[in-house]
Amino acid sequence: MNTAQKHNLLGDGAQVLRILTQVIPQLLPHRSLQDIVGDIQHALGSSVTWIAIERDGELQVHHTGEREDGYAQACQVLLHPRIIEHPYAWRILSWSQGVGELFYPGLDMPFGQLQTGILCKLPLRDYASTAWLFLAYQHTLPSITILKHGVTILADKLRDYLLEQSAREFAFQELQQISEQYKILFERAPVLMNSFDRNGRCTLWNGECERVFGWTIDEINQAQDPLALFYPDPAIRSDVRESVNTSPLTAMKEWHPLRRDGTMLTTLWANILLPDNSVLNIGLDITARKQAERILTLKATIDDLTQCLNRAEILKKLENELDATTGDPFAVLMIDLDYFKRINDSWGHAAGDKALRHFCDCMRACRFPEFYVGRLGGEEFLVILKEADCDDAVTFTTQLRETLITTPLLLNEQPVTLSFSAGALAVKGKTLILSQVLTEADKALYQAKHTGRSRTVCVRPGDIC
Ligand SMILES: Nc1nc2c(ncn2[C@@H]2O[C@H](COP(=O)(O)OP(=O)(O)OP(=O)(O)O)[C@@H](O)[C@H]2O)c(=O)[nH]1
């Protein structure tokens, strides 16, 4: 059918409806607007056809001619004073002849020669946008009224198509925004997030993993078994695999992976099974926190001044020894510095502190297989010698006295030899309770103090030797 025959059909209402039944079913969501404009032009035989959409102040134009500037074409019509200053609200405007001269004066074929034209507004107000459909013919048509009715029907369907497209685009943009937000969250959250596939290849590795472990995802995947970088022990590796792949842990579990520099981390991990059956591992690096906890725990057991065990801790140790089911023998020494007040009085309190630290250093320097030193308070100390008897206790104090002589305390560069008295007690089996041990050792110490000081008195319960 040639163009003239096609134009004649547009003068017949029934034919126009028949043409529309071919075009309207093509307004499918997956088809592009450019294709749809092409369908309309082909079915209705127009020479110039375009659809313009104004969204957020921006004009998008969909047209058929590949080489033509559709944007300029649409602007010339939509920004024409006759359109902008139109005195009435309008939905559809038509010109039975002279459209080319009106909108495209002096332009080449077919623009300057266009005769009949229709501009139809497609209100898309819900989405803060407006669209226009423009059709123009080089010849005058038999009935502009019939064409206008046809275009109104087509415009309604076209508007439904555009609204659906807008809704899809809106949903897509929202999805993209959400996915972008999750991407940022994944990359920047101060939480370790990663995932490994069934072959052990790393598929996800967020910024925090890179920062904490020191490897990039590419570096990890260069290893034959990436997991072995973190867990060199095959048994632990198998536990990790079991926890991730076989029974993902929803509660946090502590693991100790290695980082790139070989240091061991303390981490907590939980595994989240995703809908595609992959597992996302979420972890927290608690190395610094654990370290701080260890230091705090240690500090709670240490005497600040002398760095030996504090009173509570040495008494706890003594109680543990007394409660031990094995009932292994051990010796207890209660030690008190002699005439310590004189050091404070002669050299000042700071010198007294220095003397206490020096005395503890000398005790710790003594050679004995296993022993604990604790400060009971002031210048009084308790020493527990494991698997020892009274003779060992005496040997220990003799050694300590020698050390104090060979390594005197220096006060204002003057050597001062510290002296101490000691009460020793040997404990065998589970025969005594804590208070009895302390009372007996104290009795022996008292004896040492009142029989000349600088000596060790050994006692067996109820019996001083
Ligand atoms: N510099 C210093 N002095 C302390 C500390 N704790 C207790 N003292 C002092 O230790 C002295 C203990 O004096 P005394 O109980 O009379 O004992 P001493 O002078 O050693 O006499 P004997 O035990 O009888 O030989 C007191 O002057 C306390 O103030 C401390 O942490 N630092």
Automatic annotation (TrEMBL):
Residues 328-461 form the GGDEF domain. Keywords: GTP-binding, Nucleotide-binding, Nucleotidyltransferase, Transferase. Residues 178-233 form the PAS domain. Its EC number is 2.7.7.65. Pathway: Purine metabolism; 3',5'-cyclic di-GMP biosynthesis. NCBIfam families: GGDEF (TIGR00254), sensory_box (TIGR00229). This is diguanylate cyclase.
